[in-house]
């Protein structure tokens, strides 16, 4: 597929391998294994002499179709699909790092990622230093001789801090470490980390890539050397956090509408953010598409729109924040995001509830903070639903 095609075209026209039936919509190959013509072919497949499918823990045509499509959209050489976003991060670190290696990571990461780095990887001899998402100097200063990986998310959850991917890519290159970016909030439609110098892109396909809250999935993308046999794929095919063919198919179909959905999420989110910013009972709004965002210029340069996540701090305590949630009739009270349906959550008592009050204060996760993942309902209806509890 020519490189000049835009992501929305690539999302519809790549990864298509029609069967003998010439189906127009992608087929699903629900099979755990694949048959060989004879023993010679079986041996050739297993030795790698002949390419082709063997067993769906290794490869499956529906999963391969998704991998090709996502790789085209992110501008990556290769993609390895995984069973969830967390298993994508696990496959990335287990495939590329060894005991004794060191990670420098943003302190504004998804909660489970922090737990994975802090509690699980530490048991296997991989240490992580957490630094500010926005202070490039801190990343540089945290590099040790055994540092192998920089890991970040931008915009961050829930405060939408923006990390400067190009600047951090330069630091990473100088230090000889890989830069991995979790591109979950933006998707390749809004931001392409590899084009900005990152080495690895991570996705939780559970969020916007599916986009309708149906399945879990994940992906790791990068060059062939990092992704293949000796790296991420080598871990995946042996350890087995493989994406199911059914989930791959759901996500493939989700990708077809990613661009129109992201445009609509961003449009609705900007309107909600502007309305909240003008609301007398709101202290502060965190949204990269607002000129009041501390990194508005960087966000404008790095991502094409502000995305769908709006966080705001109300004037009041936890009870007042919970009142806004409890008064909603339309918006779903759930911590998931990237769904067509608008969702609302109170980070201090849910996604960030397990960390200490001190750590929450340091991270700016106050009791008055609410996060909405703005969906595709009419923006007036979302606004009216929030207005009830806001007073
Ligand atoms: C949800 C999420 C993950 C984890 O993805 P799962 O599919 O739930 O495993 C990782 N990173 C970010 C930014 C997320 O929002």
TrEMBL record:
Keywords: Amino-acid biosynthesis, Methionine biosynthesis, Pyridoxal phosphate, Transferase. The keyword Chloroplast does not apply. Its cofactor is pyridoxal 5'-phosphate. InterPro entries: Cys/Met-Metab_PyrdxlP-dep_enz (IPR000277), Cys_met_metab_PP (IPR054542), O-succ-hSer_sulfhydrylase (IPR006234), PyrdxlP-dep_Trfase (IPR015424), PyrdxlP-dep_Trfase_major (IPR015421), PyrdxlP-dep_Trfase_small (IPR015422). One of its GO terms (biological process) is homocysteine biosynthetic process. GO terms for cellular component: cytoplasm. Belongs to the trans-sulfuration enzymes family. MetZ subfamily. HAMAP family: MetZ. NCBIfam families: O_suc_HS_sulf, PRK08133.1. This is O-succinylhomoserine sulfhydrylase.
